[in-house]
Design brief:
Strand order of the largest sheet: 2-3-4-1-13-16-15-14
Radius of gyration: 19 Å
CATH architecture: Roll
Strand content: 25-35%
Structural class: alpha+beta
CATH superfamily: 2,3-Dihydroxybiphenyl 1,2-Dioxygenase, domain 1
Order of helices and strands: HEHEHEEEHEEEEHEHEEEHEEE
Helix content: 10-25%
Length: 334
C-alpha cells in the first residue's frame, strides 16, 4: 500500500493501528470513478489548470433530467468538464446553474477539507505558474518546505485553486514508466473529524481498507505545510481506492475545527463518485447507521443507461456519489 506525504512520519513510528470497524459491509466499492470539485465558474477554473499544470479540459452541458433528483436541487442544470490526470485518475469540475449557490472555503484542518496531491518533477516551475495565476499559498512562509516521504525528504507546498480547493505539490523523482510531463502521479487527501467514525464508514460500509496510527503525533514541518500552528497534533488513515488511487485521511487535534459541508451545487464543494456493488444494501446499511442521504427523499435515482446512484454525506461532511451500473445482458446461447 502506498503511503502519502502527510502519513509518512506516522507510519514510520510503529504506533498501533486504529481498531477495525465492527460492521461488515453488505456492498463493496468496485472503483473510484472520479474526484469531483464544484466550481464558481467553469471557464475560469479550467483556465487555471491549463495555465498552471498544462492540463486541458473541455466544457460541456450535461443535460440529464435526473441531475436535480441526484443533487436534491429542483431546477438545477449542470455544465461540467471531466479532466484526465496523470496516472489515470479523473477529476470532474462541475458548474451548477439555475439555483442559488453559496461558495465556501475550508481551512486545511477542518473536517471535510479535500486536497489533490500532485507529484511533480519540478516544483518551482509550477509554483511560479500558480503565483502568476494569483493562487493563494497556504503553506506558512509561502515557499516550498522539506517534508518526510517514503523516498526521503522532499520539497512540498500547498495552495488553493480559484474555488479554494487545496492542491499539494510534492517534488519527487518519478517511478519507471511514469507519464511524461511535470506532473507524473496523483493521489487524494482529506481531513477527517474522527478516525473511528471514518473507518466505520469507509471500511465498515464501503469495504475500503484503511489503516493508520491510533496515536496523535506532531511534526513542525507538516504543520507548516498546511498552514497550521507548529504544535498541532494529528493522526492518519491511508488506503487505496480501487483500482489504484492512493488516499489518506488526517485528523487534527489542538486547533479550532469546523466541519466543512457544502451542498453538492455549492462552489468549493468536494466529492467523489464511487462505483459499488449492491448499492441498495449499502444505502440501507448507511441509512440504518444514521448517514445523511442527500439525494431527493434519500432515494436511489435512475440515471439512465442502467445506472442507479445517490449522494450521501460521509462522517466528515464530504459528499459521496455512490452508483451501480447494471450488468450488460448476456446474449442467448446459440
Amino acid at each position: 500500500m502506498k503511503k502519502l506525504t502527510l502519513c509518512i512520519a506516522l507510519a514510520a513510528s510503529g504506533f498501533a493501528v486504529v481498531a477495525p470497524a465492527q460492521q461488515t459491509p453488505v456492498g463493496q466499492t468496485k472503483s473510484l470513478s472520479h474526484a469531483i470539485h464544484a466550481v464558481d465558474d467553469l471557464d475560469t477554473t479550467l483556465a487555471f489548470y491549463r495555465d498552471v499544470f498544462g492540463i486541458e479540459g473541455k466544457a460541456q452541458e450535461f443535460a440529464n433530467p435526473a441531475v436535480p433528483l441526484l443533487t436534491n436541487a429542483p431546477g438545477v442544470t449542470l455544465r461540467l468538464s471531466m479532466v484526465g490526470l496523470p496516472g489515470g485518475t479523473r477529476f470532474e469540475l462541475t458548474h451548477f446553474k439555475g439555483v442559488e449557490r453559496q461558495p465556501g472555503e475550508a481551512k486545511y484542518t477542518d473536517p471535510g477539507a479535500a486536497s489533490l496531491v500532485l507529484y511533480v518533477r519540478d516544483i518551482d516551475v509550477l509554483l511560479a505558474a500558480a503565483k502568476k495565476a494569483s493562487a493563494t499559498i497556504v503553506t506558512t512562509g509561502g515557499a516550498p518546505i522539506e517534508i518526510p516521504t517514503a523516498k526521503g525528504r522532499a520539497r512540498s507546498i500547498v495552495f488553493r485553486d480559484p474555488d479554494g480547493f487545496f492542491l499539494q505539490l510534492v517534488e519527487q523523482a518519478p517511478a519507471a514508466g511514469a507519464p511524461e510531463g511535470n506532473v507524473h502521479r496523483v493521489s487524494l487527501a482529506f481531513t477527517m473529524e474522527d478516525a473511528g467514525a471514518t473507518k466505520s464508514f469507509y471500511t465498515g460500509m464501503m469495504g475500503i481498507e484503511l489503516a493508520g496510527s491510533s496515536t496523535f503525533t506532531k511534526d513542525a514541518a507538516l504543520a507548516k505545510l498546511v498552514g497550521a500552528p507548529a504544535d498541532v497534533e494529528f493522526r492518519q488513515l491511508a488506503g487505496t481506492l480501487p483500482p489504484s488511487t492512493a488516499v489518506e485521511f488526517t485528523e487534527f487535534r489542538g486547533v479550532p475545527r469546523s466541519k466543512f459541508h457544502l451542498r453538492v451545487r455549492d462552489p468549493g464543494a468536494p466529492a467523489m463518485a464511487v462505483q459499488v456493488t449492491n448499492i441498495e444494501g449499502m444505502v440501507a446499511q448507511m441509512k440504518a447507521a444514521g448517514v445523511n442521504l442527500i439525494s431527493t427523499n434519500g432515494e436511489l435515482v435512475d440515471f439512465g443507461n442502467g445506472v442507479h446512484n445517490i449522494f450521501v454525506e460521509d462522517p466528515n461532511g464530504m459528499n459521496i456519489e455512490l452508483f451501480e451500473r447494471a450488468a450488460a445482458p448476456q446474449a442467448p446461447p446459440r
